[in-house]
Specification:
140 residues, mainly alpha, 3-stranded antiparallel β-sheet
Length: 140
């Protein structure tokens, strides 16, 4: 019996508009269409129906869910900012840098002026990450 390789499931990333709405929900915790629309940048003012449509699309994609508060739908995020960030970063690394994290970091460092204090912070974070990995490995 032959087994077929399972196709890789492509996990969707939020569009730019969906990400703005997610930012609002992450900030608010939860909100009605009106509350989310009022939170959004007001230049130009967000259209209620557009926000409502985007929230329903986002719900079908699994980014948000809703509950009822009286007659109003209250939306809450199903994904965290960190999850979206990890997936976005992975997509960039895979697509632009053939999966090489060091190539991505070198591109970032070479193409932008990084301040000394930011470099120090990056070094500190890398050291903390290494120490955490060693600690986690020792506790297993």
């Amino acid at each position: 019996m032959k087994y077929r390789a399972r196709p890789k499931v492509k996990i969707a990333l939020p569009t730019d508009g969906e990400l703005i709405i997610l930012d609002g929900l992450w900030e608010l915790g939860e909100g009605t269409v009106e509350e989310v629309a009022n939170w959004l940048p007001s230049n130009p003012r967000a259209n209620y129906k557009t926000v409502q449509s985007l929230l329903r699309i986002m719900e079908s994609k699994g980014f948000v869910q809703h509950k009822m508060r009286g007659r109003a739908f209250v939306f809450m995020p199903c994904v965290t900012r960190a999850e979206v960030g990890r997936l976005s970063t992975k997509r960039v690394v895979d697509r632009n840098f053939q999966g090489s994290h060091s190539a991505m970091l070198m591109n970032l460092l070479d193409s932008n002026h990084i301040k000394e204090d930011e470099l120090d912070e990056l070094e500190r974070l890398i050291q903390q990450h290494r120490e955490r990995k060693i600690k986690d490995g020792a506790s297993r």
